[in-house]
Give the backbone structure.
Amino acid sequence: ALQNGEILVVQNTRYEKGESKNDPELAKEWASLCDAFVMDAFGSAHRAHASTYGVPEILNADGRPTAIGFLVEKEVHSLSRCVSGAERPYVAILGGAKVSSKIKVIESLLKKVDYLIIGGAMAYTFSKAQGHTIGTSLCEDDQIDFANKCLEEGKGKLFLPIDRVISNDFENPTEIRTTSVEDLDIPDGFMGADIGPKTCELFAEIIRKAKTVFWNGPMGIFEDER
């Protein structure tokens, strides 16, 4: 048991099998250790895990205080500006892997922003919707119709990569090329790895106009220095 004034720091909670399942017994055990709960992990706040959801639920039920921390407060204020009251021009940049996980975000942003930039792996679903070949790039075929709908609704404000860095393997590429602006097709055996230099120039030109920028997700395989 903790003594007065002692602090328990748990570096990682996911070693517990019940953490990601929001196991009520695990949440109860952790809740028994504290008098109050402060959520300051913005990147984990959306997960219904035992440590992020179960514990504050128990504390709320028996009258112990729960609160958000300074980081979450800062994020909420920043995001509130993007939802309403953003200074214009307003540019949104979306990257990452999946269109399906960002459908509502894309639909909402298309109504709010002046420019919507889409890069990362999710851009290849849009590229395929436009009729381009994408090689072995990540693609969600069940989102092609949604991509076409966005392309139609976003005419004049939705921007996609105009050239790409492609490679013949994700883990250990032996060949890396850059496609040309004139030919967006990715050949068989190659996959999109990043946006190309002309796309960098185009996106930078759009971003320089902005007074508000909302950015979610990487434009490519950022963990590889190449």
User: Anything to note?
Assistant: The first strand starts at residue 37 and ends at 39. The chain has a mean pLDDT of 93.
